[in-house]
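Assess this:
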Amino acid sequence: MRRGPADQGGVLSAFFVENGTESVAAGDYDPREAVVVWHEVFNEVWAPLPDDNVVALPDALVAQLVKADPARMHDVALSWAPLVDMDFHAAFAHLSELSRLARTAVSRAETVYLRVSEQA
């Protein structure tokens, strides 16, 4: 079983919109690695995210999350879930939440960010 950030030193991670009113917890996986996988599954050119505590998600990924229909989310979840030792249904639900967050951000002309911080 892969160890996630919660197992590796108490890291808290969340995706959130620019104004901070809405967020989605990243869960027990490395969100930076996940962003790379999602890019690959969506067939986008990707670059690793910087190691900053707060970083904007790539516009191309946000655009893919916004336009992804349930069938596309199914494919992404199916590819990603085994890599993070996550149940398919949980992965699908999580990606669907991220898609909703991306749609909210785009509708408000805001940015989607990832925050990774050490637990106190």
About this structure: Residues 24 and 41 are 21 Å apart (CA to CA). The longest strand covers residues 11-17. The mean pLDDT is 81.
